[in-house]
Amino acid sequence: MREVDGQDGGGQILRSALTLSALTGDPVTIENIRGSRPTPGLKPQHLAGVEAIASVCDATVEGAGEGSEKLVFEPKRPRPGHYEVSVGTAGSITLVFETLLPLATAIDGHLSVTVSGGTDVKWSPSMAYYQHVKLPTMRRFGLLAAVEEARPGFYPRGGGEATLHLAPSSLDPIHLRERGDLQGVRVYSTESADLSNADVAARQATAAVPDFGEESDVPLRERVVRTADSPSTGTAVCVRLDYEQTMVGFDALGEPGKPAEEVGKAAAEAVTDFHASSAAVDEFLADQLVLPLALAGGEVRIPAVTEHVETNCGVMAAFDREVSVELDDDGAILSG
Fold first, then answer.
1. Is-catalytic flag, 132?
2. In the predicted model, what is the mean pLDDT of residues 145-164?
3. Which of 46, 132, 275, 308 is catalytic?
4. 3-state DSSP of 86-147
5. pTM reported for the whole predicted model
6. Which CATH superfamily is domain 180-275 in?
7. What CATH number is given for 2-175+281-331 in this structure?
């Protein structure tokens, strides 16, 4: 039985521990779940992730209740098929997908999981980021995955729906030390249908195009503006930078009373701040790549060693898998 202490981190410790347990077949006990958070224990989105991976692995689970701070997970081999799970709130669909994504390396047939909840909510990757940054990066290294979004879901009602499709895969070592020259920009902007008369998505998209000063000739390769029905009013914008060897993304969410131009500008400023660094991946992808590095090896230049990176490396160690961090003048290198 593996043992993982979640005292010093959030839901990512839980997700990584469940994923590694499913991949290795080793049962795991996770204690002090989200122990450092203002409201510790399992929330609906975490429970949806537990339910999803438990179904795929026909696992025995103890402690899967809202507010629970201890979970025991005993999996069997991941099985192909189609599964469905509901977060029940506006909790993040993409974070449920994060628990399942690496299972592509362990299945022997097609696996699809449909999740309902929030597609574009705080403290999680937006659906556009997941579709246009995370998954293309993983496909580059052999992990066969795609997401099909049925409808967006925003806070507070959620109601979004998307399906993760996985095919049997073999993950290659992940080498992302250098990014090369900037090749282009892509912008993805979404609005709920009740905002269409105000052209919110289009205004966000215009404001989200970054200004690189001397590099002002960087082409806008793609501009997607979308209107869709959703139970809650909401907007989201994601900006992707295409470098010669990598891609990165930053997103921003609309808020009541916040002009669309400010939402777009927030994403644009995050992009220009990143471009001034020498990192090969953004800070969000950095912590998400810790587990793939533990599985397949490789090296990735990241902008900084965040709490998520540190705690995720700790989970890898609990399963006898090492991901090291080396600091230098340009940031840090993650090595698996």
1. no
2. 97
3. 308
4. ECCCCCEHHHHHHHHHHHHHCCCCCEEEEEEEECCCCCCCCHHHHHHHHHHHHHHCCCCEEE
5. 0.96
6. RNA 3'-terminal phosphate cyclase, insert domain (3.30.360.20)
7. 3.65.10.20
